[in-house]
Every structure is written in C-alpha cells, then in structure tokens.
TrEMBL record:
Cofactor names: pyridoxal 5'-phosphate
Keywords: Aminotransferase, Pyridoxal phosphate, Pyruvate, Transferase
UniProt-recorded name of the protein: Alanine--glyoxylate aminotransferase
Family of this protein: Belongs to the class-V pyridoxal-phosphate-dependent aminotransferase family.
Aminotransferase class V domain boundaries: 37-328
EC number: 2.6.1.44
Class of the enzyme per the UniProt entry, highest EC level: transferase
One Pfam family this sequence matches: Aminotran_5
NCBIfam families in the record: PhnW-AepZ, PRK13479.1, transamin_PhnW
Amino acid sequence: MENNGIISSGSHAAPQEKKLFTPGPLCVSRTVKEALCRDMGSRDTEFIQIVKNLRDNLVKVAGLSQNEFTAVLMQGSGTFSVESVLLSTSNRKQKVLIVANGAYGQRMKIICEKAEIPYDILVFPETQVVDVERVLNFLESQPNGIFSSVAVIHCETTTGIINPTEKLGEQLKQKFPAMTYIVDAMSSFAAVEANYSQVDFLISSANKCLQGVPGFGFVICRLTQLEKCKGLSKSLALDLYEQWKGLEENGQFRFTPPTHAILGLTQACKELEAEGGVAGRARRYKKNSEIIKVGMAERGFKQLIEGEEGHITTTFFYPSHENFNFQKFYNELSDLGQLIYPGKVTNAACFRIGHIGHLDAEDMRHLLKCIDQVLSKMNIPCPLQ
Ligand SMILES: Cc1ncc(COP(=O)(O)O)c(C=O)c1O
C-alpha cells in the first residue's frame, strides 16, 4: 500500500495514525482522505451531480440493473440504514422473519422490539452458517401470509462467517415469491463476489469494504418494492421511501448530507474500479486473510471456526497461557501502531483480526511480527503450547 502515515513504517506523516485490523471503520487511502479536503454546498448543482453519480455507481458495484434498482443514501452509521429498512418495509400486520447467527442478526431483533415491528427470529449457532433448509421448513410450517419479509446478514461480522444469502434468496423467491428479502451486507459489500439479484433491500455503508469514511450508509432497493413502502415508516428521519423521493425529486437530501464523506466515497469508488472492482478487492482481502490465518496457525493460535470462515475478519481464541491478558496484548499492539479488535461471540474468549480496508500483504506480515514482539514481551512462548 502507498505510505499511509503509520508509526511503525517510520513514515513522516501523522504519528498517531495506526493500522486498523478491525471490522470498521477501516484504514482508507491518502487520496480518499484528500478528497474530503473540500467544502461543498449541499444544494449546489455539482454536489447534486456527485450524489447522483454515486447512487448509480453503487447499483453498478452491486452488479444490478438501474432499471430495477436504486441506491438510497442514508445519513448515520450502518445501523441507521438497517433500521430504516425494517421501519420502512413493515406494514405492522405481517411479521419479519429475522435469521440470526450473531450479534448483527440480534441487533435487528432489538430494532424490531424498540420500534414495535412484529417479528420472529430463527437463531442459529454463531459458529455455523444459517441453514437454508431450516428457514424454508419453518416458513412452510407457518400459516400463509403471516410473514411479509425475511432479513439475514451476509457476512456476520461477529465471527466473519459468510452466510449463503444467494441460496436462501433463490429458494425463498421460488417458494414464497411475495416475500420481501432483506440482506445486511454491511461488511461484505464490494469485497465478496455475490449475485444479489434476489435481494429486495441490500444494505451497506461507506466505511466498510468500499473504503470510504464513516458518515452514511446506503440501501440498494428494488424499485417495485420501494414503491410499496410509502407511509410505512414511523420515523421521520429513517424513512427510506421519503429519503428516496427527496433524492429523486430535486437530487437533494431532505436533511443535512454528509458532504465530505460523500466526496470520500466518490474517490473510494474510483479506487475500487482501479483495483479491478469487487473481484480485485476480494483477491487482495483473501491474500490478507490467508497471511493472517497461516501466520497465526504457525504461532499456535486457534481459529474459532476452522474452514468455513470468509476473508473479511477472523476470530481467534485467546491463548491458554497464564500470562495472556487481552487488554495488555491489545495495548501493546496499539503502542506499536496496530489495532486489533475484541471478540463478539457469546460463549468464547476470543479476539478478531480484520483483513479489510486499505491494507496489503506487507501490513499483515508486519502485524504478525508485532504479535511476536508482544508475545515475547508478555513472556508467552511462541509458538504457543
Ligand atoms: C453486518 C453488520 N451489520 C450492521 C453493522 C452496524 O454498523 P454500524 O456500526 O456502522 O452501525 C455492522 C458493523 O460492523 C455489521 O458488521
């Protein structure tokens, strides 16, 4: 990667900048950061055109047709976009079926509870992909018309597991053609090659694998489904339909747009294209993840999920050595300019290393060297016993 101002690389730039081996926000390129160094009026014709181009580009990155789909940008973090979809698609007479195998599926449940959206949840173990047959069997066992939608996470960032959303979508649309299909692809969009043509509402955000900066999320919506959302949301700000209408009518956001973050994502999309699109980005992340998985295995670390994990983030068990203390391990790595991430699974002591963002093979190898240094400082023999 081009010099990004990291302490450990001895560069001349901002010394406090660290490498983020996290699930987000992520390291972004210097050119993305530079794109933010410009003030823009939210009602200026140039900005309106930038927003329009970005929306079109996001549909293109998803591999979908602009005749059938549109991208709606939503201020806030990714959760705001997820919440806007759940609020805007529920008619409150039928239920949404949440298919969960981790914290982000569970977050959908909390959103529904708070907003009093009728739902059911099918929970799968955090260490396994969701079972498509079980979802379909469950729906078949239920009275006709009780559910209006199914919502699932593509990459469950809790563990890094990648769910078979394509298979679920195909079978769902075959057996229940009236069902709305919602996919949270927050941490997989632009980094996992997928066919999203069965999805009605596809959610992600600027600061994940597109490598923009935080500030807004987006939803790629099937137009025929979006049109049915009029008047459904019980929130003013998180109303996907009204947000879309606003953007369509005069090209403007209803409320203050994240102008700088939009300039950042516009630049980030150019960089995605230059990298070879989703395929190119997936290639780099897979290489990053391979270096970490092999390197950590050589050091005796055990993965939470062997084999099935994707290339977004990997979860490792804490070493059993008595000197291991995660907070100390984390702080020591942080002092070396390397930020890893705590675990999020319910029943295991573990931590995560993200492979995404503006990071390359050299960054991953450097992290491994820093891990060696820290283990040695903590008096933990490496390889671990
Ligand atoms: C799959 C998934 N869904 C939702 C979210 C929530 O996004 P945010 O933290 O930006 O609100 C995340 C965040 O990492 C995520 O990975």
